[in-house]
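User: Here's a chain of 252 residues. Predict its fold as tokens.
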Amino acid sequence: MPKRRKRKKEDHEVNESWLLPYADLLTLLLAVFIVLFASSSLDEAKFSQISSVFSEIFEGGHGVMDNASPTAVPVPKDSVGTESENSSFLEDRRSLGEIQDRVDEYIAVHELENQFETKLTDEGLLITIRDSILFNTGSAEIAPQYESFASDIAELLKFDPPRQVVVTGHTDNIPIHTAQFASNWELSVKRAVNFLTILVDNEGIDPLLFSAKGYGEFQPIASNDTAEGRSKNRRVEVLVQPLVLEDGRAFE
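Assistant: Prediction complete.
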């Protein structure tokens, strides 16, 4: 009986041709993610990096973005909004600086450097006036010889567009208890109100934009242990508030 021929086992080759398109797909996905990441905060340095990466990926001489124009890539809307907000804030600070310059010029002309001080703060332009140039000791009435100073300050507080202004009274920590004032709080508030009254009693000043308050001895700027320190603490502050906050919101 003849022997059956043994069938040779067929050699099965594994077809790996699918790996090529799969690798190409991964490469393209990598390129897409690089573009998305870079476009979120676009600048010249990132353009250069993108071009270099694409050159390495596709091994083709020049980068695919070598001739790209920055204007061809959309700028995120948030970036435009931030630039606008910063511009408005900086413009408002510049305007406050011009007001400060006018006040400083008035101080220099009248040689009031020891009684007046100006400073730009996060809250606006702060004008500090020592109480000695406005009030007699323990009194909230502005001395007649100093009323002209208050009127002059009012002229400097005429703005276009109008701004809100807060007048604040401060005292030292020496207790006061008179028939007129039971505490330094009352004295500080009354001084602020009396100074405010002269300010708004000028044509071109809108009283609706002005307010007054008093802190008594509770917001000192110097030590109350010395006569010089107590003199600094007895003061009236005029705060010219900003129109635009640092985050771009309008001041309310």
